[in-house]
């Protein structure tokens, strides 16, 4: 995983250098943040409620042509799902909301196409690096956390998704965006009790940002 992170960093730096030298349009850097509605989908997760969390991070836009740009990003993404609706056997013995929190550093590498001035669509692969996993019995307060150690986890450290979205950028650099991401493979490790469980990350994101 460390090698992949280093490779991604070198790849993005190389692309930045190439486009800075070959394209007269300015490269833009920015920050973004917003709300996540996430869950796990698949044959074994039919009626899971979404977890509401947030995302925050950095974004760059590297022009390729008048209407096409390359847009790499790196951001924190709070994911997972709401446990309470699937706890039919009352395993957790509580009436409160419970969340399964599965948090990532996400690195999407997107192609962005402008349809008209300001309005664009974007698509591309997204690579996720798991940084945290826990059950939270009190998601609206500081208590109730049960962290899952790496050696006890059945979830992969790395996840690959496809991202599709749209955004509108105003003249001053402020932008709004909406995006959908869907995992391409199951999040669960092989050679574990969950190896045959079909479960993929699914996230809707809505946010704002600013390009400098």
Q: Main traits of this protein?
A:
10% helix, Porin, mainly beta, 212 residues, elongated
Q: Can you put this structure into words, describing what you see?
A:
- With 212 residues, the chain is mainly beta.
- It has one domain (2-211): Porin.
- Helix content is 10%, strand content 54%.
- It is built from one helix and nine strands, in the order αβββββββββ.
- Strands 1-2-3-4-5-7-8-9 form an eight-stranded antiparallel β-barrel.
- The chain is elongated and about 50 Å long.
- The two termini are 31 Å apart.
- Pfam families: OMP_b-brl_2.
- Residues 20-189 form the Outer membrane protein beta-barrel domain.
- Residues 1-22 form the signal peptide.
- This is Outer membrane protein beta-barrel domain-containing protein.
- Keywords: Signal.
Task: Outline the fold blueprint.
Elements: H1 2-22, E1 28-41, E2 51-63, E3 68-82, E4 99-116, E5 119-136, E6 145-147, E7 158-169, E8 174-183, E9 200-211
Number of helices: 1
Level-1 CATH class name? Mainly Beta
Strand order of the largest sheet: 1-2-3-4-5-7-8-9
The 3D shape can be described as elongated
Helix content: under 10%
Rg on CA atoms, Å: 19 Å
For the biggest sheet, the summary is: 8 strands, antiparallel, barrel
Signal peptide: 1-22
Keywords: Signal
Domain Outer membrane protein beta-barrel: 20-189
InterPro entries: Beta-barrel_OMP_2
């Amino acid at each position: 995983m460390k090698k992949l992170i280093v490779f991604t960093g070198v790849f993005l730096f190389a692309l930045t250098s190439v486009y800075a030298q070959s394209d007269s349009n300015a490269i833009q850097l920015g920050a973004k943040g917003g709300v996540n509605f996430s869950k796990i989908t698949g044959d074994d997760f039919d009626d899971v409620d979404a977890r509401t969390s947030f995302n925050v991070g950095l974004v760059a836009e590297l022009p390729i042509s008048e209407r096409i740009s390359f847009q790499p990003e790196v951001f924190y993404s709070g994911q997972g799902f709401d446990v309470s609706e699937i706890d039919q056997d009352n395993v957790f013995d509580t009436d409160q909301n419970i969340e399964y929190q599965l948090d990532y550093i996400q690195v999407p590498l997107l192609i962005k196409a402008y349809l008209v001035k300001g309005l664009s669509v974007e698509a591309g692969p997204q690579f996720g690096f798991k940084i945290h996993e826990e059950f939270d019995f009190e998601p609206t307060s500081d208590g109730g956390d049960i962290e899952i150690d790496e050696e006890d986890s059945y979830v992969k450290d790395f996840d690959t998704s496809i991202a599709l979205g749209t955004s509108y950028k105003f003249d001053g650099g402020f932008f709004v965006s909406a995006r959908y991401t869907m995992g391409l493979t199951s999040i669960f490790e092989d050679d574990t009790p969950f190896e045959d469980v079909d479960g993929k990350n699914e996230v809707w994101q809505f946010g704002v940002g600013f390009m400098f």
